[in-house]
Design goal:
By secondary structure, this protein is an alpha/beta fold. It contains eleven helices and eleven strands. A hairpin with a 2-residue loop joins strand 2 and strand 3.
Length: about 300
Amino acid sequence: MSLWRGRGKEPELLATIAGEASAEAAFAFEQAERAVPPVDLTAAAFFDVDNTMMMGASIFHFARGMAARKFFTTSDLTKFALQQVMFRIGGRETQDGIRNAKESGLSFVAGHSVAELMSLGEEIYDELMADKIWPGTRSLAQMHMDAGQRVWLVTATPVDLATIIARRLGLAGALGTVLESENGVYTGRLVGEMLHGPAKAHAVRALAAREGLDLRRCTAYSDSANDVPMLSVVGTAVAVNPDGTLRETARKRGWEIRDFRTGRKAAKIGVPSVLGAGAVAGAVVAGLAYRKRGT
């Protein structure tokens, strides 16, 4: 199953379902010409987004932008943030917790057009996300590109939003959670399951098979212990801004650890910094309250 998007002579985006039946993912690939095309075609790098490539959760920043545009209230946004803080602090991201986040959050996008939210995503990236990219992590991605390798984002964030981030960073593309749409309008349902935990490893394997990558020569980066499956399928694993469990795992397995956080930055980031990828399903819980008031 695949979904093509293009706008005239502008760069085309290819979204392809990847992974197994229990864990489908979208592969969004930008066909833009590059000044220096990749020369190392069997090696690549895979980066998680939330708290790895970006400070905090990308969907939270997107929600802030939507709240500013009166899609829902600031109070709803605060309730969402607090709920997700308790969800993350309460322990490991359980399947029930992930499912609840998915079912409540998807109501936010239902009925909105893909074109509308993609356009807003571009605006919100400039307003609220661009300055949240970790300079250190971006430098790591650039290091791979300078070596002629392709770089992909691999995230539970909706692939539509992940694709915007990947394009703005000059990356090859993104693997992310697929939101179903009919006639260009989101239905509020997922295509397959969230790209989370073992699903990321399945998606990376599928991408490697598609692109002819040698996973032993590939590198993966993440902040979360939930991404150990993805980190384990590549030859080089790097824990970036790791949570406690991942830091311990990295030490035991001899993985490299990179931490770009400081006390000042942590205070500045605040609530969004504790939001995990498992809290992302393609939307935010705040949208549920907004839609209920309108019914």
